[in-house]
Write a structure and sequence with these properties.
Among the domains are: about 130 residues, Rossmann fold (3-Layer(aba) Sandwich); about 160 residues, NAD(P)-binding Rossmann-like Domain (Rossmann fold). The chain contains 18 helices and twelve strands. The strands form two sheets. A seven-stranded mixed β-sheet has the order 9-8-7-6-10-11-12, sandwiched between helices. Helix 10 links the parallel strand 6 and strand 7. The longest helix is centred in the C-terminal third of the chain and has 25 residues.
């Protein structure tokens, strides 16, 4: 369609040097071509031009002092992409690779992910090139306080509610929340992922990994199967991977691989969850130490040749970072008989990998559907904060499971309605887009 092609050319021209952002925009706009053709009101209202341009981008310097008394300066940013259906919602990423293109890619994905949750949340994302690895708690605290000193001007419980992402866990959220409360003299649900004793929600820690497993289980139900008895290969060993391991084991499956940036392990007997939690959540150590302690595990350095995707499995879950699973990896997984793939990280599969999975009829749930459990439970945390109450673990987990089932149903029905049954990538993009686009049309030119 000429309209979609023209918008893609315009976005590429206006956003040079941002390949991740162009990758996600291209995927979404290609998916929604039949929707735009069927609904000319979207073109009349210039919805594509407007939805691909952030409503606001804030960039700022973050000066802080290290333990040696030396002043350091990092760059912080927040992209407030779309608020048509609710306040901006999306994580903060602390990682040296962060730049504007990464944050725009994540923020654009967040628009449609949040729309799929059925909760009233818009899309946003933020972060900094600060690396918390190797920093003391006091250095992290000083950085977070400086970061929030500027960010607090642009966020609020009814405006923009950040959460955690890579490099931002409970420690960082705590330091940022404390600084926000100090500066604004108010106690609100302005951040999610808070501690349970000061406004956090049960299940929030487990939410992304649990939600990922729930949606893979729903896909398998469509073909009369389940997670029970399945072998699972996954990348990552952080929050998403850890709690995906936990839920898979609860459902009777077996996870045999995990990884970090240095390397990966294969434990044919199944990943030992308690040891993994101790290693990553308490010691903050490298995954190599797992193999040093667990005799059934084998360790390989990153870039040594093989990777987690060479291990035969029924289910694959890329949970580390964007574009980690390429076309060759996908072909290896297909050759080894993979049945289902769920994206636990944001856009971890390259376009070539996604195409290979869809062509081979492998069940494939894209990140904006599969890893929406985290932001969904953040939305539930916002609800509890607004009501000044909290729900039990079982009640919150049941709500999360219901949301993930609803997301899968939306993706499935949208794909069928627009002539691509079983293509949950297209289904997720279409279902999320229609909800946001209809809200934008209804609210006029803003």
């Amino acid at each position: 369609m000429a309209y979609v092609d023209d918008v893609l050319k315009s976005v590429e021209r206006r956003n040079p040097g941002q390949p991740e952002f162009m990758q996600t925009v291209t995927e979404v706009l290609d998916s929604i071509r039949p929707v735009v053709e069927r609904n000319p009101a979207y073109q009349d209202a210039a919805i594509l031009e407007r939805i691909t341009e952030p409503e606001r981008v804030v960039m700022f310097r973050v000066p802080w002092m290290d333990d040696g008394g030396k002043i350091q300066v990092n760059r912080g940013m927040r992209v407030q992409f779309n608020s048509a259906i609710g306040p901006y919602k999306g994580g903060l990423r602390f990682h040296p690779t962060v730049y504007l293109g990464i944050i725009k890619f994540l923020g654009f994905e967040q628009i449609f992910k949040n729309a799929l949750t059925t909760l009233p949340m818009g899309g946003g994302k933020g972060g900094t090139d600060f690396d918390p690895k190797g920093k003391s708690d006091n250095e992290v605290m000083r950085f977070c306080q400086s970061f929030m000193t500027e960010l607090q001007r642009h966020i609020g419980p009814d405006t923009d509610v950040p959460a955690g992402d890579i490099g931002v866990g409970g420690r960082e959220i705590g330091f940022m929340y404390g600084q926000y409360r100090r500066l604004r003299n108010e106690v609100t649900g302005v951040l999610t992922g808070k501690g349970l004793k000061w406004g956090g929600s049960l299940v929030r820690t487990e939410a992304t990994g649990y939600g990922l497993t729930y949606i893979v289980e729903e896909m398998l139900k469509d073909i009369g199967e389940s997670v029970e008895g399945k072998t699972v290969a996954m990348s990552g060993s952080g929050n998403v991977a850890t709690y995906a391991v936990e839920k898979i084991h609860q459902l009777g499956g077996k996870v045999v691989t995990v990884s970090d940036s240095n390397g990966w392990i294969h434990d044919a007997d199944g990943i030992k969850l308690d040891f993994l939690k101790e290693l990553k959540e308490v010691k903050r150590a490298r995954i190599k130490e797992y193999a040093e302690e667990v005799k059934s595990a084998k360790y390989a350095e990153a870039g040594s040749g093989d990777n987690v995707w060479t291990v035969p499995c029924d289910i694959a879950m890329p949970n580390a970072t964007q574009n980690e699973l390429n076309g060759d990896d996908a072909k290896t997984l297909i050759k080894n008989g993979v049945k289902a793939v769920g994206e636990g990280a944001n856009m971890p599969c390259t376009p070539e990998a996604v195409e290979a999975f869809l062509e081979a009829k492998v069940l494939f749930s894209p990140a904006k559907a599969a890893n929406a459990g985290g932001v969904a439970t953040s939305g539930l945390e916002m609800c509890q904060n607004s009501m000044r109450m909290s729900w039990s673990f079982e009640e919150t987990d049941a709500k999360l499971k219901g949301i993930m089932q609803s997301i899968h149903t939306q993706c499935k029905e949208a794909a069928e309605e627009y002539g691509c049954p079983g293509n949950f990538v297209a289904g997720a993009n279409i279902a999320g887009f229609i909800k946001v686009a209809d809200a934008m049309v209804a609210q006029g030119l803003v």
